[in-house]
Amino acid sequence: MTVAALIEQDGRYLLVEERTAAGLRLNTPAGHLEPGESPQDGAAREALEETGRRFTPTALLGVYLAASPDGDGTPTTWLRIAYCGSAGEPELGHALDEGIVRTVWMTPSEVQASQDRHRSPLVWRCVEDHLRGQRFALDAVHVDGSALRV
Length: 150
Prior knowledge:
Layout: E1 2-9, E2 12-20, E3 23-27, E4 30-32, H1 39-51, E5 55-69, E6 75-87, E7 100-106, H2 108-113, H3 122-131, H4 145-148
Parallel strand pairs: 1-6
Antiparallel strand pairs: 1-2, 1-4, 2-3, 2-7, 5-6
């Protein structure tokens, strides 16, 4: 399972450019959920690690399922829980995660035009859903206490 942060500010979306087995790709700040954390906390952690900015989720954007080949061509199915919200200014001295080349603010049309460089088809889908006004309450994702005691 992956968790993702969709950050919009002044009509632009914050994406990361990252090194992958398929070359440089664009993605929303996203990564794997770690043991003992909620999806919301995982999205905030990933955003900080990949952008150097503290992310505050304000809504669940959606739950998404997609498949893509791994580096060896084996298909993998991904479940993504995406949140939208706001992010602060970059924290001074915060190094970006390994593999992240840079962050970039893009207009919706720039995100749409760069789909051939997206790490996943879910990048554009999340932006589309956000532009349509799709939002769900944060408590739509229930986290049982047992998941936090791992």
